[in-house]
Write a structure and sequence with these properties.
Layout (H helix, E strand, L loop, with lengths): L2 H14 L17 H17 L4 E7 L3 H7 L5 E6 L3 E2 L3 E3 L8 E10 L10 H6 L1 E11 L10 H6 L4 E6 L15 E6 L2 E7 L7 H13 L10 E3 L7 E2 L5 E6 L3 E7 L1
Parallel strand pairs: 3-7, 4-13
Antiparallel strand pairs: 1-2, 5-6, 5-10, 5-11, 6-7, 8-9, 8-12, 12-13
Helix pairs in contact: 1-2
The protein binds 2-oxoadipic acid and magnesium ion.
Length: 259
């Protein structure tokens, strides 16, 4: 078996068994590069596809200046959302299915036409976007204490765990998505807030960057993809009983309960 596949299985077993593991770069492969990390991620995606799981779309991560600075990088990362990760709006997220989950508020795009890089711009993305909708992403790094390097988190499918999409779809041209205000509340208390511009200046720019990164491996953003563009708010730790609400100006509210 290739080492990439072994590392992917290491991470998948941590996800399935709901236990945190030591990061790959701690001793399994200290010299893991970003490029190799995407190979591990691809193996992880293949494992899930072979199990019959269906891909919902790619997602972007580390799109805010705060997170990029924290990780000391100047480019976001991507991962993939699968059907088994979806929770209905107003639904429940059982804590026993997670390791140490956090929630963040994001704007999602429903893509109407294929978008192929390189050289894609935010304006081109908007022209090919069918709808935008609000979302709450539950991230759950498989690594101890969310402690990882950039290659570690790429290999771990960018910490993706669960997603709650809002139920109202809006046409993107109705909005200035960079100016859309967002609050993230837990049990009625605002934990963080922000605006769409927190995501590389504009959420459409995030999708453009994604298309340009996918082009490096001969892939593209596809018609029908539902894409999380990256956290607008910081990620907030979840605990049992939390009632979580993300309110997005003009786009509606997304909620779930931790059970
Ligand atoms: C990586 C997850 C990144 C986002 O929106 O920035 C991500 C992490 O912080 O664990 O989903
Ligand atoms: Mg995210």
């Amino acid at each position: 078996m290739s080492q990439y596949k072994e590392l992917a299985e290491y991470l998948v077993s941590a996800e399935v068994e709901k236990r945190e593991v030591v990061k790959i770069t701690a001793n399994l492969k200290p010299d893991l590069t970003v490029e190799e990390a995407y190979h591990v991620q691809q193996e992880l995606v293949n494992i899930k596809l072979n199990e019959g799981k269906r891909m919902v779309g790619p997602k972007m991560g580390l799109t805010s200046h705060a997170k990029m600075k924290q990780m000391n990088v100047n480019e976001p990362i991507y991962g993939y959302v699968f059907d088994y990760m979806l929770i209905e709006n107003g639904g429940q997220v059982p804590l026993h299915e997670q390791i140490h989950p956090k929630v963040e508020a994001e704007i999602a795009f429903v893509i109407g036409e294929d978008i192929e890089g390189p050289g894609v711009t935010g304006a081109q993305v908007l022209a090919k976007t069918q709808y935008v909708l609000p979302a709450l992403e539950i991230i759950d790094s498989r690594y101890e204490n969310f402690n990882f390097t950039l290659p570690d988190v790429i290999a771990d499918n960018a910490s993706t765990s669960r997603v709650v999409f809002g139920t109202s779809l809006k046409k993107p041209e109705q909005f200035e998505l960079d100016l859309v205000g967002v609050t993230l509340s837990i049990n009625g208390e605002i934990k963080d807030l922000g605006a769409g511009a927190a995501v590389v200046g504009h959420p459409a720019h995030s999708v453009a960057m994604l298309a340009n990164m996918l082009a490096r491996k001969g892939e593209k953003v596809r018609k029908g993809d539902v894409i999380l563009t990256g956290g607008i708010t910081g990620a907030v730790m979840l605990k049992y009983g939390d009632v979580v609400s993300g309110k997005f100006e003009g786009l509606g509210e997304v909620t779930f309960t931790v059970t």
